[in-house]
Amino acid sequence: MNPEDLSLLVTRQMPFGKYQGRLIADLPGHYLGWFARSGFPKGELGRLLALMHEIDHNGLNALLEPLRKNARR
Q1: What is the DSSP letter of 15?
Q2: Where exactly are the structural domains of the chain?
């Protein structure tokens, strides 16, 4: 994992689908789980979705809060 990927989770928006425009860090767990079962997209988006799935699945979402605060500045 690239450490910069954590910052991207709180700044990148989902580019398509039901949750288009929502930050990747704000995607619901069931949606991330669906990607985990069906297959993540190729490239950066897939890498970020897989990372967010791991964070969400392990209950580590609070780790992103400091990054959210920095992103708002």
Answers
A1: -
A2: 4-72
